[in-house]
Amino acid sequence: DGSLELVKVTKRYGETLAVDAIDLRVPAGTYCCFLGPSGCGKSSTMRMIAGHEIASSGDIILGAQNITELAPAKRGTAMMFQNYALFPHLTVLDNVAFSLKMRGQSKAERYRKAGEVMELVDLTKFASRLPAQLSGGQQQRVALARALVTDPGILILDEPLSALDPFLRLKVRTELKRLQRELGISFLHVTHGQDEAMALADLVVIMKDGRIEQAASPQDVFHRP
Ligand code: ADP
Ligand code: ADP
Question: Does the Cβ of 43 fall within 6 Å of ligand 2?
Answer without folding.
Answer: yes
